[in-house]
Amino acid sequence: MPKAAYYAVQRGRSTGIYDSWDDCEAQVKGFLGAKYKKFLNRAEAEAFVAGGGPAAPSAAPSTSVAASKNLQATKTPDEDDESGFIVVYTDGACKGNGKNGSVAGVGVWWGPNDPRNIAERCPGDQTNNRAELIAILRMLEETPITPKPLLVKSDSQYSIKCLTEWISKWQSNGFRLADGSPIKNAGIIRCIWSLLGIREASGQKVRFKYVKGHSGHVGNDGADDMANRGALLPILQERDWETEERQLQQQLEALQKKRTRTSFFQANTTTTSKPVTLEPASIASTSKPSSPTKPLTLTPKMQHDIPDTRKPFTPSMHQSPLKVIYAGPPLIPVNPRDVNFDDYADCLLDDEDLANELSD
User: Fold this and answer.
1) Average pLDDT across the chain, whole number
2) In the structure, what pLDDT confidence band is assigned to residue 322 with cuts at 50, 70 and 90?
3) Does the predicted TM-score (pTM) go above 0.70?
4) Which residues does 96 contact at the CB level (< 8 Å), separation at least 6?
5) Tens digits of per-residue pLDDT, 28-39?
6) CA distances from 28 to 18, 45, 59, 112 (A)
7) Domain spanning 86-245 has what CATH number?
8) For labelling, which of 69, 111, 281, 345 has a CA lying 20 to 30 Å from the CA of 150?
9) CATH number for the 6-50 domain, one of 3.40.970.10, 1.10.940.10, 3.40.47.10, 3.40.50.720?
10) What is the C-alpha end-to-end distance of the chain, expressed in Å?
């Protein structure tokens, strides 16, 4: 009988200890700077996850970790340096989980006596997994969006995997299990995913990190205390997750359209004027250059830099009823003698064509 193996992930998408290589590989494959190792002793695996001992290649097939050491994210702080993140802890608690009469609460912990801490009753069905997910959702709903990345620490591997691993497959198969049955808590997961999308569209990245529950970790213990307090509060009715998801999606789509328009405007707008140097011979002008050998430097003007020379024009009775709003000067001087007006003849309307256009 093969010996039990413990695959410890010290740095990956979700840190922790996994029973199979497949589960471990999902956390480290393609993850920059991943650290993981196979152990035959759980205590050693736990010590490794907590930061003890160097990373070593796994006995199972591994990804190229060494090649990724030179690839560092330039805009996102390193996970080990939490000073670059806004760090928050979430937790769910359920007394009598899976039994009749169970009560569940959600907890969010920022720090001792922090006014942002949340202790609420879990709405709807009272289960631990729902409480864990709703704790994350309530944190996202109440936390202002900032450019600084957000690091969410939870002791729920279920919640983390829902949002980092399984979500892609569920979106493609309509949130169903392998046997075709709908997954549990789909409405909550969809709403959380929409909230994460809103933060992403607003410029804030969100990461999740697993912490072992009931291990003396101050932050996790604080979130657990909030969740247990919430379980003692009055019952809350179930929320309309379908309607809420639809509203969040509308908000996300509006943000994405705004971001697309902003990107297009920035890509097509000159924010700085750079001098353009031209030889005098290449400029069509009736005036004689002050120096035949000295290049002439022109600085293109933005529209708001051009003096306002607009002159309203009202046609007389025998003229076309069309009104010229204003005629502004060209951005670059043009000599009329250099323009072949015959090229534009097809663009002009004679009196008969103009009358036909106006009568339509």
Assistant:
1) 77
2) low
3) no
4) 102, 103
5) 776 766 788 888
6) 12, 16, 14, 34
7) 3.30.420.10
8) 69
9) 3.40.970.10
10) 90
